[in-house]
Amino acid sequence: MNALQKTLAIVAFLALASQTVRHAYRLWLEPRGSSLDKYDLPLKDEIGGATSLEELLRRYDKVRKEVDEKRQELEKVDAKDRPYINELQTEPYKSEHALRDAITQWEKESQEIYQLRFYWLVAFVFLVLGVITYKKTSRWLGLTLLMVAFSEFIYWTSPTFLGSGVREFDRLLLNKLVFTILSLLLLITVIWRHGVFAEKAEAS
Fold it and tell me: How many CB atoms within 10 Å of residue 111?
């Protein structure tokens, strides 16, 4: 059993340690600019500089009114005389699409932060139950509960591979970094308290 514990501890440590490094890199060191950004200014700066969802919604409301006015004007024109408009390249449609995507991403990342916090707490409950069961009742059952706990820790703090350009993404990364470090500290504590790599375990 001790060999299994060592293997699981090493795998969990490698996963959490590598995730910690990746989150820190993406949050503070990863280059985010592009030579093409200048063609999307100033809208990209406005989206990236928004500090709340409400701010994005206010900007979207303004652009959406412009879009509705444009569409109403076009509806007054005969269908045969109506010009073709590529909404992905023409203002204000382009800005409306960009702001809509930013709002969608903000809401998605806010939901992911909520899920991360909720399931991390659920995993912490499994961890506490696992430690108690391991000491008081059954080592195998306790180890199983600990495996469930750290599997949840690792899964919910796993890297987010695509960024959205809104500040909520940075908040998501920061939450993942903090909870990954907490998970790593809990893993080290469990390893130390249970003497997984202690010499006496080898002797027995």
Answer: 11
Which DSSP category does 90 fall into? S
Tokens of 78: 């005969």
Q: What is the DSSP string of 14-46?
A: HHHHHHHHHHHIIIIIS----TTGGGTTTHHHH
Is 169 in a helix, a strand, or coil?
helix
**How distant, in Å, are the alpha carbons of 10, 148, 200 from that of 4?**
10, 15, 16
User: Mean pLDDT over residues 38-62, rounded?
Assistant: 82
Q: How far is CA 105 from CA 53, 169, 184, in A?
A: 10, 8, 29
Dihedral over Cα of 151, 164, 101, 118: its sign: positive
The Cα–Cα gap between 103 and 167 comes to 11
Spatial contact of 113 and 175, defined as CB atoms under 8 Å apart: yes
Count up the domains in the chain and report the number. 1
Nearest to 162 by CA among 109, 118, 115, 107: 109
CA separation (Å) from 16 to 139, 170, 196?
24, 19, 18
- Mean residue pLDDT of the chain comes to 87
How many CB atoms neighbour CB 196 within 10 A?
A: 15
What's the whole-number mean pLDDT along residues 28-40?
A: 69
